[in-house]
């Protein structure tokens, strides 16, 4: 079975008939007789975008049918055979188009896996085994193929020197395997009556309980959020993490094949009794604060307000494809329109016409929302106005999902479709990539999850991401050239991350079930030592299970989905949100009183640490001094007191920037103000030796070079190291520091590094202050 268009389904069977069905009326619209010798075993449609503008849609111009005679047949859309290809000895059991449609893969009873061109020319025989290949599937990038070898699965790379990954997947023969193009997850079903979910490295994420009969069919929804499982008189709808939404018992015998529509709302299937099934996803439920929305029918939704106990029904002319409710707005996507409701007024929605009915992803932020269809990534305002069509290098629509695309009011973060180590940051105002060096952000490992905070200013925008090793990192989206650390590691073993909708708080759930909450992640770039202090951990018995997922985070409640599908609400300290509110409104005294009020609260220490980071970031030294004293950071207290004694404005600003972690900003202030010696000693204290030498050479006054060389030699002698810098080797060869230089002559200057100042004038004159 396969979808030729969004409204047309094609099926074939042992009755030698090719039948075209109308998915809206569930009636056969055309029947074509096949040769009497052709007994089909598999069918796969090749999606191809045709048309332009509003008429653009996904239509399969070709589809391929495998048969028991050892051939596969390429059909055109009219149902005529364009080419018959002799492929295997014995039956061809499975055949699949590659993701982009440039190649075919086939597996047969002879145990061989072969790659073919689009026209049916043999390219290579990838593998050969004495066991039949019952199922195969291409990877999202079409550079790997997963296929079955009895009870084992093997991921075969198509590059010549790469090693395959093989593992035992089931206790019986594996009959079906599917690899989703969107979320990169693999699901398999076998004669042991179980289905299992794997990641792309073969690690088990979920194993179902044993069913009554073998699993005979599997299919992922195109958006990667659901998959369907078929067995004898059984049809299950499952979440991507494995747990089951619903179970139906159609009296159809074994369901042999399943296929989803392009909008992920319908499933077509065929069974061993010759029955064709059409199933629809209904009763989808979303909630936001006091509201609950239920798609109770294909064209009907119910909106409940649990605080006022009111319930309203809204009927639409077309089928409902997607729902989303966040930031005070409900979005309802139908076949041709998007309806935008404000939760304060459901009577007058904004309606916009869709250019493409196949909406694969819907994201919301506090100011706008993002629609991803089969061809475009469009940003809209909540008034229904198209703001910008986003494009970036490496964009591939079918790889975008909630884990690889993030939206905030001013920025979009997207993982590169070709290089999973790269994140593109795009400005929503201009549509241009945000980059200091004209290069996208690149991590050292492949990135699996990305998420951005919704609050704070554009310059404080933070992207949190988890990489292949499940390590969590924070990076500044708009990192200034004056910032030393753009990326900071936060923690390890992360399974899911989420930002609060109301304040700048980050939550992450680890693989051991522990929930970590960072009250002010910005401290990673202000005072890294505060990051672990300004956080608390929850170890809930309800969450200790495999692969929990964070669903939503607003106010002081986090919703966690367990692996069995149950929802757990986890409360956090409400005073953290109050603190963010006071600070965002510059009500520093109230924020300080709040922290003092929590003196005996068990979460007082993390809240004080968060307040210290906020005060330091806001350049509120008095508040920062009190907060640091409360968490026993006496070194920071003494340093702040030293800064407060400085009377010179430039010196004070430089030291504030330094304690706030902005080393390059502090250096820049010092150089502009003429305090070159302090800038040089700052780099020496931080072991930025070559930078210190460059400054000494540029402002060669009063033996600055000799001062740098003296401290460099002391460093080498102390750590028993030999010189390895070419710059320093050159200077050490020209002069002997210990014989010609006496540091005691500079004791007074070095003691008060702000006592010497080089005036910045056009003539380059120097003077002392």
TrEMBL record:
Gene Ontology annotations of biological process type: cilium assembly
InterPro entries xref list: Beta-prop_IFT80_2nd, Quinoprotein_ADH-like_sf, TPR_IFT80_172_dom, WD40/YVTN_repeat-like_dom_sf, WD40_repeat_dom_sf, WD40_rpt
Subcellular location, principal: other
GO cellular component labels: cilium; intraciliary transport particle B
Pfam families found in the cross-reference section: Beta-prop_IFT80_2nd, TPR_IFT80_172, WD40
Keywords recorded for this protein, A-Z: Cell projection, Cilium, WD repeat
Protein name: Uncharacterized protein
């Amino acid at each position: 079975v396969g979808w030729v268009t969004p409204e047309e389904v094609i099926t074939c069977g042992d009755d030698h008939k090719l039948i075209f069905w109308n998915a809206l009326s569930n009636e056969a619209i055309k029947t074509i007789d096949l040769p009497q010798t052709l007994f089909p075993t598999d069918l796969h449609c090749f999606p191809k975008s045709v048309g332009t503008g509003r008429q653009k849609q996904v239509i399969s111009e070709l589809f391929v049918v495998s048969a028991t005679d050892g051939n596969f047949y390429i059909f055109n859309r009219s149902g005529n055979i364009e080419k018959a290809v002799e492929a295997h000895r014995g039956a061809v059991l499975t055949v699949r188009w590659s993701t982009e449609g440039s190649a075919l893969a086939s597996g047969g009873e002879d145990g061989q896996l072969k790659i073919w061109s689009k026209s049916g020319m043999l390219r290579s025989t990838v593998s050969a085994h004495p066991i039949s290949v019952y199922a195969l599937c291409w990877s999202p990038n079409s550079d790997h193929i997963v296929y079955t070898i009895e009870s084992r699965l093997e991921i075969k790379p198509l590059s010549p020197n790469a090693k395959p990954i093989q593992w035992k997947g089931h206790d019986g023969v594996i009959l079906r395997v599917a690899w989703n193009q969107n979320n990169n997850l693999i699901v398999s079903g076998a004669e042991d009556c179980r289905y299992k979910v794997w990641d792309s490295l073969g690690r088990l994420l979920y194993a179902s309980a044993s069913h009554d009969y073998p699993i005979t069919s599997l299919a992922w929804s195109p958006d990667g959020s659901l998959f369907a499982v078929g067995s004898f008189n059984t049809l299950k709808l499952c979440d991507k993490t494995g747990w089951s939404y619903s179970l139906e018992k159609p009296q159809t015998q074994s369901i042999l094949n399943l296929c989803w529509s392009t909008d992920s709302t319908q499933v077509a299937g065929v069974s061993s009794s010759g029955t064709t099934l059409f199933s629809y996803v209904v009763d989808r439920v979303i909630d936001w604060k006091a509201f609950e929305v239920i798609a109770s029918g294909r064209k009907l939704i119910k909106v409940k307000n649990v605080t006022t106990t009111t319930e309203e029904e809204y009927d639409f002319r077309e089928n409902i494809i997607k729902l989303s409710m966040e930031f005070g707005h409900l979005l309802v996507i139908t076949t041709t329109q998007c309806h935008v409701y404000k939760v304060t007024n459901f009577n007058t929605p904004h309606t916009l016409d869709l250019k493409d009915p196949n909406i694969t992803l819907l994201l919301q932020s506090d100011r706008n929302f993002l629609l991803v269809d089969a061809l475009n990534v469009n940003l809209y305002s909540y008034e229904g106005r198209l703001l910008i069509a986003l494009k970036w290098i490496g964009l591939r629509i079918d790889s975008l999902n909630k884990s690889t695309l993030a939206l905030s009011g001013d920025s979009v973060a997207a993982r590169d479709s070709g290089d999973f180590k790269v994140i593109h940051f795009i400005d929503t105002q201009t549509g241009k990539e945000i980059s200091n060096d004209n290069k996208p952000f690149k991590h050292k490992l492949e990135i699996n999850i990305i998420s951005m905070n919704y609050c704070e200013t554009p310059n404080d925008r933070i992207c949190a991401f988890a990489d292949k090793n499940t390590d969590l990192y924070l990076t500044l989206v708009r990192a200034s050239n004056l910032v030393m650390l753009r990326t900071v590691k936060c923690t390890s073993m992360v399974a899911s991350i989420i930002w609060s909708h109301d304040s700048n708080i980050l939550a992450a759930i680890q693989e051991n079930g522990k929930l970590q909450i960072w009250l002010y992640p910005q401290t990673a770039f202000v005072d890294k030592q505060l990051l672990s202090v300004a956080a608390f951990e929850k170890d809930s018995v309800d969450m200790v299970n495999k692969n929990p997922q964070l669903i939503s985070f607003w106010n002081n409640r986090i919703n966690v989905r367990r692996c069995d599908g149950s929802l757990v609400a986890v409360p956090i300290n409400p005073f953290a949100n109050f603190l963010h509110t006071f600070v965002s409104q510059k009500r520093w005294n109230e924020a300080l009183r709040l922290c003092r009020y929590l003196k005996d609260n068990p979460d007082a220490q993390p809240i004080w640490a968060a307040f210290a980071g906020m005060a330091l970031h806001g350049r509120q030294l008095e508040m920062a001094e009190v907060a640091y004293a409360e968490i026993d950071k006496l070194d920071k207290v003494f340093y702040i007191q030293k800064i407060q004694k400085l009377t010179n404005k430039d010196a004070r600003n430089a030291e504030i920037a330094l304690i706030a972690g902005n080393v390059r900003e502090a250096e820049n202030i010092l150089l502009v103000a003429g305090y070159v010696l302090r800038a040089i000693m700052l780099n020496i204290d931080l072991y930025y030796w070559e930078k210190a030498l460059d400054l000494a050479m540029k402002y060669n006054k009063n033996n600055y070079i000799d001062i740098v060389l003296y401290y460099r030699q002391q460093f080498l002698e102390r750590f028993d190291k030999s010189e390895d810098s070419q710059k320093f080797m050159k200077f050490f060869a020209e002069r002997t520091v210990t014989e010609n230089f006496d540091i005691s002559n500079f004791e007074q200057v070095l003691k008060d590094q702000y006592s010497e100042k080089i005036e910045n004038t056009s003539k380059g004159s120097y003077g002392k202050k």
